[in-house]
Amino acid sequence: MSDTPPPNGETRGPPSRGLRRTAELAGIAVTGVVAVCMLGFLLLYWAQDLPVASDLYAGFRSVGRGMDAAFGTNVFRHPIMWQSMATGVLVGIVAPLVGSFLVHREMALIGETLAHTAFAGVAIGILVTSSTGWNGSLLLVALVVGILGALVVQWLTERTDAYGDVPIAIMLSGSFAVGTLIISYGDGLTGVNIRGYLFGNLAVVTPQGARLMGVLSLLVVAGVALTYKQLLFITFDEQAARVAQLNVTGYNTLLVVLTAVVVVGAMQVLGVILVAAMLVVPVAAASQVARSFRETMYLAVIFGQISVIGGFAVSIGLGLPSGGSIVVTAIAVYLASIVGAGFSVNAISSHG
Amino acid sequence: MSGTHRRDTRDGGPEARSKRDKRAGDPSGTHHVSAIVELDGVTFSYGDTVAVSDVSLRVEAGEFLGLVGPNGSGKTTLLHLMLGLHRPDEGSVELFGRPVDEFDDGGRIGYVSQKATSRGGAMPVTVRECVTMGRFAHAGRGRLSADDRAAVDDAIETVGIGELADRLVSELSGGQKQRAYIARALASDADLLALDEPTVGVDAESRDAFYALLDELNDDGITIILIEHDIGVVTDRASRIACINTELYHHGDTESFVESDALAEAYGSTGQVVHHHH
Fold it and tell me: pTM, whole model, 2 decimals?
């Protein structure tokens, strides 16, 4: 992140280290450019009726048609596909970013739990929509419920004095149970594609959903950038961070809230059941080969991006669900990183 | 070693001393607060189990206090109480002359926990990243300055692991890992170093070198509180001993501890001091 410059010693390293660093920075730069393009699309789509934006949006559409012609596809001319891709690209950045802290705090299960909490939120949203005729965003309801769930998880873990499995597991299955009950109760009331939320579907992404993801992504990146030092210290050595008078509870709460924000955005394309994979798998892959924590974050974001774009290619090419395609691609990247690390067994699971 | 350098910055004349007095919570700067930690009648329980009972003790500036006691005697709990990681059920704790609840100058304490050092840890953090954490309390939310990075480099050199700066902490030996954590404390310019069984799993040679480093730091004016299971090591190194088994059995200079019956009483007559010869 921008608030902590690179370590001093890097220029003293061997040439291969310099090359590696250059490749990483190039990967991050490409990811950044893609993300800005996607945010640009979301902005133009939103503002397409305004004078200048309409011309730019028309230009974007014609680029899409050109891409279709070039690749022989019927994908890039449709705004809904760009919305899905924008959402996926942003998920590929923010999920590994937050996941870098979660994984090394051994809190990977939290992401899964919050996804299920958010699912309950979607269910509540469906119920509210169908019974009151309110025409609001389901994702917004999911976001509110997800954040409330995050605060409950944090409260539970503070009370149990550890990120204990038991309260988290209860929360996970409990919120999913509530979600299924509400959906059964409201069955047939709406035409909402609930399977899409479970397994991820490019068609689930609405313009509001994509815009919400854009705003949330900016908030998450800013949140991590501003608190990078504190989150790193707490992740590495929580007790020493407490002694250094860091507000550990506050930063832990921030981390679970950021996680809730990420999973709500990511559940559109990944689905509730698979959303935690993007928090965990790219980070696990990066941890195999990274030589510092900063490098872990860079590589996790790059691997996340490769997973999303590769997964989209598989999903579109073979007509498969996006969630499964992205996660399988991410696991392929993970396996490749193990091979790349010389079959290193320095795995996440070997935490002492 | 840059012990001389540290002494220079630490006792840097009246101006520096006045600054430290102000940090100790004395706005006038005229009264030097010498007690680093002061416990008065401290009791702490985990549920129904009393871990620390009615302990009163004072750790003076520049002291090297060895904290000893049998397994499960409440040593770590007592250290946590001193550092504000636990709040006492009864009694009061003061850090640098201020009630522990009000103490907010975390940079003055370097803490090396048992958990941190025993952690196998696959988290990829370099020595430099680890030591840089010591500057976070100083940098606050802002960027790290050139001075911060200079302090990090200085700390890494002081503990003698300059060539390991870009290695991962998880790849270091036990002794090297300890030095990395000590360097983190030095980078924060800590006045108090609190160590919880730092040499578990460290070979004898590295352990001797590690304790020699602690001696140097103590000579430079850093107060040290050390929990160590090897009583011989503590009595060789520490100037004062606190012996605890829920209650405080002894608190005083090392000679009086060796001559007293506190050890036998606290350990149930099985303890025996074995002196190490270096």
Answer: 0.84
Parse chain B into domains and list their residue ranges: 3-117+193-267
Q: What is the pLDDT of residue A192?
A: 64
- Gap between the Cα atoms of A311 and A291, Å rounded: 27
A318/A324 Cα distance (integer angstroms): 12
How many Cβ pairs within 8 Å bridge chains A and B? Answer: 115
One-letter identity of residue B210: F
Cβ-defined contact of A7 to B129 (cutoff 8 Å): yes
Which residues on chain A are in Cβ contact (under 8 Å) with B130? Answer: 236
- Which site among A234, A243, A292, A346 would you substitute to test the B interface, given the most B Cβ atoms closer than 10 Å to its Cβ? A243
* Domains of chain A, residue spans: 28-350
Which of the residues B114, B133, B138 would you substitute to probe the A interface, choosing the one with the greatest number of A C-beta atoms within 10 Å? B133
**Exposed, middle or buried by CB within 10 Å (0-12, 13-18, 19+), for A53?**
middle
As assigned by CATH, the class of the B3-117+193-267 domain is: alpha beta
Substitution target in B81, B85, B136 with the highest count of A β-carbons within 10 Å is B136
pLDDT (tens digit per residue) in A101-119: 999 888 888 888 888 888 8
- Whole-angstrom distance, CA of residue A320 vs CA of residue A44: 29
Q: Which CATH architecture has domain A28-350?
A: Orthogonal Bundle (1.10)
Give the number of C-alpha atoms closer than 13 A to the C-alpha of residue B83, restricted to the C-beta side: 32
Closest-CA distance, B166 to chain A, in angstroms, reads: 7
Token pair for A259: 């996680």
Spell out the per-residue pLDDT of chain B, length 278, in tens. 433 334 333 333 344 333 334 334 444 444 445 789 999 999 999 988 999 999 999 999 999 999 998 888 899 999 999 999 999 999 999 999 999 988 888 889 999 887 665 554 678 999 999 999 998 877 766 788 888 889 999 999 988 899 999 999 988 888 888 889 989 988 988 999 999 988 777 778 888 888 888 999 999 899 999 998 888 888 888 999 999 988 888 888 888 887 777 777 777 755 555 555 44
> For the residues of A117-174, what is the DSSP string, one character each?
HHHHHHHHHHHHHHHH-----HHHHHHHHHHHHHHHHHHHHHHTTS--HHHHHHHHHH
Q: Beta-carbon neighbour count of residue A10 at 10 Å?
A: 13
pLDDT at A191 (0 to 100): 62
Which of A9, A243, A244 shows the shortest C-beta gap to B136?
A: A244
Q: Which of residues 197-256 of A touch B (CB under 8 A)?
A: 226, 229-230, 232-233, 235-237, 239-246
The ipTM is: 0.82
Nearest to B122 among A230, A295, A350 (CB): A350
pLDDT < 70: residue spans in chain A:
1-16, 135-136, 161-164, 186-193, 343-352
